[in-house]
Amino acid sequence: MKTQIFKSLFKAATLSLLISSSMPSFAEPTDEIIAIVGNSAILRSDLNQAVNEVKQTYQAQKKEVPPEQYLKMQALDAIIIRDAQLEQVKRYGVKIDEATLNDAVLKVAKQSGSNSLESFQQKLDAYSPGAYAGLRDRVAEDLSVQKLRQQMVMSRIKISDQDVDNFLKSPQGQAAVGSQAHILHMRIAGSGSEAEINQTAANVKNALQDSNDTAAIAKKFSTANVTVDGADMGFRSFSDIPAELAARVTNIKVGQTSELIPAKDGIHILKLLDRKSNDQKALVHQYQVRHILIQPSEVVTADMAKQMIDSIYSRLSKGEDFATLAATYSNDPGSARDGGSLGWVSPGTMVPEFEQQMKDTPVNQISQPFQSQFGWHILQVTDTRDQDMTSELQKRMAKQILGERQFDSELDSWLRELRASTYVDIKDKSLDQKAIEKAQNDSTQEAEQK
Q1: CA dist., res. 92 & res. 18, Å (int)
Q2: What is the residue range of 54's domain?
Q3: Are residues 52 and 34 in the same domain?
Q4: Can you tell me the distance from the alpha carbon of 46 to that of 54, in angstroms, rounded to the nearest whole number?
Q5: What φ, ψ does residue 81 adopt, rounded to 5°?
Q6: Where among 138, 154, 170 does a domain terminate?
Q7: Residues 24 and 146 in one domain
Q8: 55-85 in b/e burial notation, b at 16+ Cβ within 10 A?
Q9: I want to staple 38 with a disulfide (CB 3.0 to 4.6 A). Which of 43, 75, 87, 279 is the partner?
Q10: In-domain check, residue 26
Q11: Helix 68-92 to helix 2-11 angle, to the nearest 10 degrees?
């Protein structure tokens, strides 16, 4: 339990700790290397700073501070994991763009009372020269590690179409998509014997199969020792139905009655009268698009690519066939085989430059040549439509929810594997859990031999 608490505290550093940890630091006079992680070295001053940060966080949250040796060993392990991830960041060339970094630093600035990066930089550097640059580096590292984790962990998560279908049929899935159920609810309880209550419940279930009059059924089967309550619950969202009951509703068809449901407050029976989905449709404005792409390459310079796209645009303007030119010249093999057709395109699926041109180009007209990260394009919108994408969006949402459920466990697995595969040499054996355990085992064996 303490280890889990430590991890959460170590990851959730407060603003003051983030700023203080970004201040320029200098090796202590008696500093030494206490561990090697890959190509990086961990100094004793690094460990001391990490331990002090965690202590401050414990104290700020008014929690009992664990023993010093425990803090040191756990802090060292956290530093090792972080350094191992930063090694992977370098290996895979994970980069954070300047705009994303500026946004993240600005959030920190606003939390500290500064409304601009300029004023924040002046504030930090006045406190300690170079502090702003140090903080930017720390935030950039954090963002890079987050991006690395997303890439590595998401590639490990596998969600099948059957997983999605099963989730959407579950109470959680039904609640997520806004489904509702019209339910009759009966409850049988009282001071009678278990056999008497069970028999009454069976009678109520049989009656409920043939009738929807809950009041009449309750009156008919209630006795001095057994109370039968019934109610028409109307349409209820699955999110408003107790989980143990919602699970039973998803497994029965309209008109059917559930099995007897034992609970602390009696025996419950449900009857499903109707079900409906959220009436709100997800209509998406789609574009039927075809395009021609010219990409610079080792043999086609950027200037040559621009000249080629301009020449193709000129030929299109004179009436030449778009599909023929796309099949002949486009560097997008998937669409070139089909005359440049990309089919029906939904907003959010193309790079920003392409999407903006797609929205701005009237139907059956040809866009001016424009550039994206992939090269030079010309596009034509041949039609538009408003498409009901409710089912597709529900499946996408289900995949996201299922992915989030798996993320933490897959992240833990990946971190354990990364830790095991990373070269680590702990110089200070008093901080090496494996060395301590080995020494203890050796001592135990020696004692047993004597």
Answers
A1: 26
A2: 2-154
A3: yes
A4: 13
A5: -60, -45
A6: 154
A7: yes
A8: bbbbeeeeeeebeeeebbbbbbbbbbbbbbb
A9: 87
A10: yes
A11: 50
Q: Which residues pair with 228 in a beta bridge?
A: 188
pLDDT digits (tens, 9 = 90+) for 126-171: 988 988 999 999 999 999 999 999 889 888 888 898 988 888 787 7
In a shared domain, residues 198 and 92: no
Instruction: Let me know if residue 429 belongs to a domain.
Output: no
Same domain, 107 and 140: yes
Query: Is residue 293, in this structure, part of any structural domain at all?
Result: yes
- Verify that 217 and 322 share a domain, yes or no: no
Placement of tokens 């929690």 in the chain? 63
Q: Return the beta strands (E) in 6-97 as ranges.
A: 33-37, 40-43
Are the C-beta atoms of residues 104 and 163 closer than 8 Å to each other?
A: no
Asked if 380 and 299 sit in the same domain, the reply is: yes
Alpha carbon distance 246, 201 (integer Å):
19
Q: How many domains does the chain have?
A: 3
Are 196 and 264 part of one and the same domain? yes
Residuewise pLDDT in 10s, the chain (450 residues): 444 444 444 444 444 445 555 555 555 556 799 899 988 899 999 899 889 888 888 888 888 888 888 889 888 999 999 999 999 999 999 988 898 899 999 999 998 889 999 999 999 889 889 889 999 999 999 999 999 998 898 888 888 989 888 887 877 777 666 677 788 999 999 988 989 999 999 999 999 999 999 999 999 999 999 999 998 988 877 667 776 777 777 778 889 999 898 888 889 999 989 877 665 566 889 999 999 999 998 889 999 999 999 999 999 999 999 999 999 999 998 899 999 999 999 888 898 899 999 999 999 999 999 999 899 999 999 999 998 877 777 787 778 778 877 888 899 999 999 999 999 999 888 888 775 666 556 556 665 665
Distance, in Å, from the CA atom of 121 to the CA atom of 116, rounded to the nearest integer, reads 9
d(CA 183, CA 273): 6
Read off the tokens for 326: 């796309």
